[in-house]
TrEMBL record:
Protein's recorded name: ABC transporter permease
Species the sequence originates in: Mucilaginibacter glaciei
Membrane topology: Multi-pass membrane protein
Annotated MacB-like periplasmic core domain residues: 20-252, 452-637
GO cellular component, one term: plasma membrane
Amino acid sequence: MIKNYFKIAFRGFRKHKLFTFINIVGLSIGITAALVIYLIVQFDFTFDNFHKDSDRVYRVVTDYSFSGEKGYNNGVTMALPGAAKTEATGLDIVAPYYLMGSVRANVPNGSKTPAKIKDVQLIFADQNFFKIFDFKWLAGSAATSLKDPGQVVLTTKQAKIYFPKLDYSEMIGRGIIYDDSIKATVSGIIVPFSKNSDFAFHDIVSYISGTTQSYLKPNFNWSNWTNTSSSSQLFVKLSSGTTPGAVERQFNAMLRKHHPRTAAEKNSTQDFKLQPLAAIHFDQIYGGMDGMRTASKTTLYGLLGIAAFLLILGCINFINLTTAQASQRAKEIGIRKTMGGSRAELIMQFLSETFLITLLAVIIAVALCPLVLKLFSDFIPPGVTETYHFQPALLIFLLLLIVVVSLLSGFYPAIVLSSYQPVQVLKGQSANSTGKTRGAWLRKSLTVTQFVIAQFFIMATLLVSKQIYYATHKNLGFKQDAIVFVSTPWKAKPEAKKVFLEKIKAIPQIALISVGSSPPSSNNTMSTSVIYSNGKQEISTDIQQKYADANYLKLYQIKLLAGRNITEADTASGFLVNETYAKIIGFKKAGDAVGTVVKYNGNDKNMRIIGVVADFHQKSLHAPIKPLLITHYTTYNNGTFHLALTPQTQGGNEWKTAINGIEKAWKQVYPDDDFEYKFFDESIAKFYTAEQNTGKLLNWATGLSIFISCLGLLGLAIYTTTQRTKEIGVRKVLGASVTQIVTLLSTELIWLILLAFVLVTPIAWFAMHKWMEGFADRTNISWWIFALSGAAMLGAALLTLSFQTVKAAVANPVKSLRSE
């Protein structure tokens, strides 16, 4: 019986090649999207979900506010971990660690190992780290390997880089020197996690080493309750029955106990929060683990929506074309019922046909998936392409997809077709042939749904493109083009920086040089607290700070509104502030703030405001402009060189010559470090990588949705003209023009597209409005976005319809009427 079902199905496919092709193409596009998106979503939702008791593991983070300005930090004060161990209850494990970041490793006793290994991600942790996160040990033990100062635990990957010819047991006791200052001895070897994890550290030095080595002591001040650094991380494992809220209350009580609030801090807050381990990979506020990418749940859910929409479009095509063909199969159904065929058998026949088409579409999707992954390689996380193979979970997903799509596409057509009465259909009275039944209304409703989805994608694409253009072309308050910045090694000696400066001054293609910290707009944030007293109250403000020299404003063309520029003489006595800070402390006119004395770095010292600069964006347009001060650099914060290049002549290579000159100077001064430079305008554009990836994805989704919708529209047009062949012939004989016939055949479908436009416009506006709320500075939602999308969809539909309607309208009426 099953063999007979498939044999009949293949005969039908050969008879209706075009409709079969349209169905397979529509479904294969939707299934390919679903498969690729499944791989992405499954990849991100499996991060760190394998740890034992992960539901009781939390990261401690810090929320704070100054005069209404909110801030978030994924670190804690250095004093909290020690107090948590001795004063807090309800905790099974307290595991602090310190993120040292990227360092150089020197392995004196390595076997044929390079003298220095660069970009080593180093952390400091204690034994409790291994009580929360269970690693497999190949040498050493979790109980003792980080107990004493100067111990380091390596992952197998890193150990083989340092000691490629030694067994793991032979590596114990070997020495490693980090950044020529941190001396450590190998005490353990662990196997890195094989599953997806944000804990990608390879060198773990004992936490207590931070207090025994003079170089590290300033960073490991375990009595400090005031400074919060993202490098100081803390994980806790709650006891069974303990709630996160109870622990938060204890931590904040400790903070108030050890650091009572002063009068100047009455308008500020600082609170510790507990963040679930499962939330870290998706966090967009505090940030994920250092150096690791974070995923957006909103984006992932949006991807699932796109996959669902494209699948629905393919299914709609199948339902529309199958029910439209119902009259052509009516006699087949009538004869089979007359010969004793049951309705259940007919339903199985039609479902088997759908199953075959879906199976073919899945095979095509599996073949296309690697190509799509490669096409979107800059958008898709690298781990997705590395793990793409037929895992059990992937096979189960494909089987479920086949079943769901087969039922979704084939169930309704099977019910409709199997319901025909043999007497009526054999008399040529098939209800569906009138075009005025529920089937006709269903086809119209589904067609409207198709074009609602397609037009939504068009509108979303136009808005995202408009916002990206606005963000990348807006005047941010500073010059962006023809500026290169180079950051020297963070441990570079002041003398080396002076030598490097003198060498690049001699490059003729460099017009101006400024030395300091980060550019005007960057992801690097440095902040301090400033207290201003107006005689009646003290206003404490968390204020971002940048270090610069006198050339900084000139090089970036930042407007000085009042006062004067900074000089080297102002290093310890004065600084510039932006308009936002001047307004926060009560000055409506910028000039009135000049000369004001404030307490810098809390109560550390008095500093004078010597000038006020115009506001500029310190980060992307997602974030509002924050209060800012610019002070002259000191010996320790002059690591970035900002270089304004001379104008490049047409066809010239002045910029290339300048960069080659900078690289030459770099290699002479810093031979052990890689030379890296960045164009400032390119670094600004990278702020919107996520939006650009979203735009690219929407472009493809829009194109595919229009393609699938127009395929279905073409199929319906072919069916309609075929059904009305004789009517068209009669009308032409009676004098109807080609234009009139094309209008007749197209009008109904055009009205459906216009109805879809009316329905989708308010939905799209609401969705756009919600998306735009993520930008502090944003473009407006223009009316032309909706008008253009409607016109584009209407134009695509008319072009699609014209292929068939014009062909039918110009056909010789004699051929269509000769059988009458």
